[in-house]
Specification:
With about 230 residues, the chain is mainly α. Helix content is about 75%, strand content about 0%.
């Protein structure tokens, strides 16, 4: 009985220390996964190029889907919290094939996210270096550098890693908001009524491309980013 009581706390915590992170630090990885700094410069232009005037509707539907998934996860998290994340929940109530698919999906999502972050770092790092010095550097060097720094911070202390995530996201979002405020102050706010009426949108077939409110065509931001590389 004594041995069982001693093993119970260890198994219930999965070998992890309890109450190490504050609620905000626990929320940091979720905020980072949403990528609030990448969405304005990459995701929105790509969605806009595909959905046209239905971009806002696509985001509304996607937000509702995410909200439903979040509600389901929160119900499970009230009874069980573990490092296994979604895999732990699916393996308890679904067939082994479904839980295996969930585990592989999570692994591929983590790998793709890491590759995306590394690629964005060496691309924009070279852009900044060329603007500042006129010369770039090796993409392999920058990729290894950011990987080594990220690995060291995460291995050294999870608390420091969470705080670094929060500070990076806070500074980045603040800079983006400052740029948006300056642009609105310079050009003014324009309401694109074509998007509100979903003009040019159909249930099937290619949608219309995005157009700026003033009616003047410009290159999508994603195309500009690709050409700058």
């Amino acid at each position: 009985m004594t041995q069982a009581s001693q093993l119970a706390p260890e198994s219930s915590t999965y070998g992890l220390r309890r109450e190490v992170l504050s609620p905000m630090e626990t929320l940091a990885p979720s905020i980072s996964s949403i990528a609030p700094t990448t969405t304005p410069v990459a995701t929105i232009p790509l969605v806009c190029a595909l959905a046209g005037n239905g971009t806002w509707l696509a985001y509304v539907l996607a937000s509702l889907a995410i909200l439903l998934v979040t509600v389901c996860i929160s119900k499970f998290a009230r009874y069980s919290a573990s490092p296994g994340s979604l895999y732990t929940y699916t393996v308890k109530i679904m067939a082994p094939a479904v839980s295996a698919a969930s585990a592989w999906s999570l692994l591929l999502a983590y790998i793709a996210t890491g590759a995306n972050v590394i690629g964005g770092f060496y691309h924009y790092g070279n852009v900044l270096l060329r603007d500042a010095t006129g010369h770039g550097t090796s993409a392999v060097f920058l990729a290894l550098l950011v990987t080594a720094i990220s690995t060291w911070i995460a291995w050294r202390d999870v608390k420091s890693s969470a705080r670094v995530i929060l500070w990076i996201e806070a500074i980045s979002v603040s800079l983006i908001l400052i740029v948006v405020i300056f642009v609105l102050a310079r050009t003014g706010f324009h309401l694109d009524r074509e998007q509100l009426h979903l003009r040019g949108m159909t249930g099937s077939g290619p949608p219309r491309r995005c157009r700026p409110p003033a009616g003047r065509r410009t290159k999508p931001a994603a195309f500009t980013i690709a050409r700058s590389g």
